[in-house]
Amino acid sequence: MWHMVEDLIVLQAENSVRPAGQPRRSSWKRPPHGRTKVNTDAAFQASSAIGAFGAIIRDADGNLIADSAKRYFHIADPLTGECLAARDGLKLAAQQSLDRVILECDNLSLFNMMRESTGGRSAVYGLWQEIQELCNAFISIEFSFVHREGNGAAHVCASLPSLLEPELVWLDRFSLHLLEGLSPIVILL
Q1: Going by C-beta distance under 8 Å and a sequence separation of 6 or more, which residues neighbour residue 128?
Q2: How many independent structural domains does the chain possess?
Q3: Which domain holds residue 145?
Q4: Is residue 21 part of a domain?
C-alpha cells in the first residue's frame, strides 16, 4: 500500500509543479538489486537565507527504509543547500548501516562535483570534503542525476520542516505530513 501512497504523493507534487502539456522528463527508478538509493533535495529561500533538505532512502524493491527532513538557517546559496542535503542523506544512510548506496540528486552542479571530485575548487569545499569522508563509510557509493520530476518524494519531504518541527525522521514508514496534502479520495485508497 505504501508504494501506491508514495506514487500518489509524487504524482500530486509533479502535477502542481509541471505546466500542463509539458512532458515528464524522468521518473524515479529503483536501484539495482543489492543497492539502496538515497534521494536528496534542498529548498532555499534567498530573501531569508533559510533552507531545508529532504532525503528518502529506498531499496531495490522500492521499499522505504527511512526519510528525513531538516530546516537550515544562514544558507548562502542553493548549491550550499544541496550539499547539506547530500551530506545529511548520506549520514542517514550510514545510521541505517547501509553499505551499497546510490546518492541521487536533481542538482547538476552537485552531481558533477561528486562524480568528478572537483569540490576542492568550490566555495562549498568544506561540505564537499565532509561528503567525501562520509563516502568512505560505504563499501560502494555511486552518484546519480535525475531531473526534478524523478525526485518528487525528496522534494516534498524538503518542504516539511518548520519552525515548530525543524528536524523530522521517519523509519520504515512515510510521514503523515506527506499525506496531509492528498485529497480525501486519495487517502481512502
Answers
A1: 83, 113, 114, 119, 120, 122
A2: 1
A3: 2-6+27-177
A4: no
